[in-house]
Amino acid sequence: MGSSLLQGILSMLWVGTALTMGCHSGRTPVAVADPRYAFAFPDGADYSGLTWTAGFQAAHTKFSREYVFTQWKGVDWPALYNQFYPRIVQAEATGDARAYYLALHDYVCSIPDGHVNLKVGDDPALRPGCLHLIRDICQSLLGGSYGLALAELDDGRTIAAAVAPLRAAAQVGMRPGAEILTWGGRSPAVAIGAIKVGATPYRLLA
């Protein structure tokens, strides 16, 4: 895999809530901080010109410093770094883009915040190759999907938040808003609790 594609993969970094992170692509965030609230958007950063290890170190430093929910979410940044940095080093040493992506994904999924995720860079020359790699990873680990996304509500119910047309769930009559009563013979809460988030590298509804 060429260095240009690897740079594109390196540009896949977390995109936090508007309160926490700027645009990784280096562009200034479009939104403007509301003066009624005591926050400002952090400066953006582009680490795609760095090595994988240097990029991870720089991004981790920025993220751990600027993420505003650290205490509330109980994020242990030093522990996360110590857990995932060796995987980044190993991936770079072997030139393994798949291992590199999975290390980044597992790192991001270790932060208990649904607004934090990975984003593919905007470079049109690199984006298709990056997406192809991620789809291959998804297919090898999951083998496909039912074509629906679930949501846990405050009242304890689990519903189908979105259903992709023409996919398996839609074909058997599932509709958005339907309550999920059981999943594989277990309650939705038990089934969801058994999922290893880091094993799902890329989620697509269609």
Please tell me the total number of domains. Answer: 2
If helices are DSSP runs of H or I spanning 4 or more residues, what is the number of helices? 8
Chain-averaged pLDDT: 75
Molecular shape: globular
Q: Strand sequence of the main sheet, in spatial order?
A: 1-2
Q: What percent of residues are in strands?
A: 5-15%
Low-confidence stretches: 1-33, 201-206
Helix content: 40-55%
DSSP E strands, number: 4
What structural class should be given to the helix and strand makeup? mainly alpha
Radius of gyration based on Cα positions: 19 Å
Order of helices and strands: HEHHHHEHEEHH
What separation lies between the terminal Cα atoms?
Answer: 27 Å
Q: How would you sum up the major sheet? A: 2 strands, antiparallel
Describe the structure in your own words.
- The protein has 206 residues and is mainly alpha-helical.
- It folds into two domains: 3-142, no CATH class; 148-199, no CATH class.
- It is 41% helix and 7% strand.
- Strands 1-2 form a two-stranded antiparallel sheet. Strands 3-4 form a two-stranded antiparallel ribbon.
- A hairpin with a 5-residue loop joins strand 3 (148-152) and strand 4.
- Helix 2 (52-66) runs antiparallel to helix 4 (77-94) and helix 4 packs antiparallel against helix 5.
- It is globular and about 50 Å long.
- The model is unreliable at 1-33 and 201-206 (pLDDT under 50).
